[in-house]
C-alpha cells in the first residue's frame, strides 16, 4: 500500500512539475518564498488586532506567534525524522524534472504548507464571524503549495500532509485560546 502511495506521489509530482513554462519560472520562484508574502502577514495581523482591546489583541497575536513557532519546530523535526529526499535532490528524478529552486533540507512535511495553512486557519477561526470573505484566504496556501511542486522541491504528499498538519495544529491552538479566554 505504501509503495503504491509513494508511486502515485512521484508520478503526480512529475506530471504537475512538467506543466511548468520557462517564461513563468521567475514568478513562481518569487511566489514560493515565504518572505514574498510579508504584506499578507501584516494584513492578517492587522485584521487580528483591528477593533480589539489591547489585552485581547496581544492574546491573539501571542497565540498566533506561538502556533507559527510550534509549526516551524514541528516541520523541522519531521524532516529530520523522516529524511525524505526532495525531488530536486533525488538523483533518480532531478535529471528528468524541472528544478527551479533547490534545498539541502529534507522534504517531509512541507514547512511552507504547514506554515501557510496554519496561519490561514487561525486567521479564519478568529475572524469567520466578522469577515465573511475570510475563507478566500485559503487561496494563498493552495497557491503557495503548488509553487513548491513547480520549483521542484516538494512532492504532493509533503504538501498535503503539511497542509493537514497546519490546519489541525491551528485548530488545536484555537481550542487552547478559547479555553484560556473563558477561564480569564
Please give the structural blueprint.
Layout: H1 2-18, H2 25-31, H3 38-49, H4 54-82, H5 111-127, H6 139-150, H7 156-183
Can you offer a commentary on this structure?
Helix content is 66%, strand content 0%. It has 184 residues and is an all-alpha fold. It has one domain. The longest helix has 29 residues, at 54-82. It is elongated.
Properties at a glance:
184 residues, mainly alpha
In short:
66% of the residues lie in helices and 0% in strands. The protein has 184 residues and is mostly helical.
Shape: elongated
Q: Measured on Cα atoms, how large is the radius of gyration?
A: 18 Å
Span between N and C termini? 48 Å
Q: What characterizes the major β-sheet?
A: none
How much strand content do the residues show? Answer: under 5%
Q: What integer is the average pLDDT? A: 94
The number of strands is 0
Give the ordered list of helices and strands: HHHHHHH
- Roughly how much helix do the residues carry, as a percent range? 55-70%
Number of domains: 1
Structural class: mainly alpha
Low-confidence segments? none
Q: Helical stretch count?
A: 7
Amino acid at each position: 500500500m505504501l509503495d503504491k502511495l509513494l508511486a502515485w506521489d512521484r508520478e503526480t509530482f512529475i506530471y504537475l512539475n512538467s506543466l511548468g513554462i520557462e517564461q513563468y519560472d521567475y514568478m513562481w520562484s518569487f511566489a514560493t518564498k515565504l518572505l514574498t508574502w510579508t504584506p499578507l502577514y501584516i494584513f492578517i495581523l492587522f485584521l487580528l488586532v483591528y477593533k480589539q482591546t489591547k489585552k485581547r489583541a496581544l492574546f491573539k497575536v501571542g497565540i498566533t506567534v506561538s502556533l507559527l513557532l510550534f509549526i516551524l519546530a514541528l516541520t523541522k523535526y519531521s524532516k529530520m525524522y523522516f529524511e525524505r529526499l526532495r525531488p530536486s535532490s533525488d538523483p533518480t528524478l532531478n535529471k528528468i524534472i524541472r528544478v527551479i529552486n533547490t534545498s539541502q533540507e529534507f522534504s517531509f512535511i512541507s514547512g511552507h504548507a504547514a506554515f501557510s495553512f496554519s496561519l490561514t486557519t487561525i486567521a479564519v477561526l478568529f475572524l469567520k464571524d466578522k469577515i465573511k470573505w475570510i475563507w478566500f484566504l485559503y487561496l494563498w496556501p493552495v497557491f503557495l503549495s503548488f509553487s513548491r511542486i513547480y520549483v521542484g522541491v516538494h512532492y504532493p504528499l509533503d504538501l498535503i500532509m503539511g497542509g493537514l498538519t497546519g490546519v489541525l495544529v491551528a485548530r488545536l491552538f484555537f481550542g487552547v485560546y478559547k479555553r484560556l479566554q473563558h477561564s480569564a
